[in-house]
Amino acid sequence: MKKPIRLYFICIENRCRSQIAEAYAKQLGKDHVIVESAGLKESEIHPYTVEVMKEVGINISSAVSKRIDMKVFIQSNIIVKLCQQTNEKCPVVPFGVQSVQWNIPDPLQGEEDSLDNVRASRDVIKSKVMELLRNLDVPLYE
């Protein structure tokens, strides 16, 4: 087996989108990937995030929100920024590290904060993670 690919998913608070992306990448890529997620600031994992992942059989109830760790950032093969705000405020991606931009709106932002919005984001993120892993020739374990 070739060396695992290091993925780092970044969003603003690491409470929803990046946590979902991390969970799916770990589940789908197994030991072909080393996956972490972080935010520009840390927060609490939103209960909706835990709930929508439980609906698809993934338990992230012990997940913890984290701030960007520059050591992990620099050692990553691919940094995935999940929204435009992270693209604008994220540290500069080092030479040799691939930067991927997904513009997924925060489903927990504003008055539209709903379980259905988080479910919709979860499903978009899953398809994007699957596409990313396929493009990297990572076998998918569904």
From TrEMBL:
Its EC number is 1.20.4.4. It comes from the Bacteria. Keywords: Oxidoreductase. This is Arsenate reductase ArsC. The lineage of its organism: Bacteria, Bacillati, Bacillota, Bacilli, Bacillales.
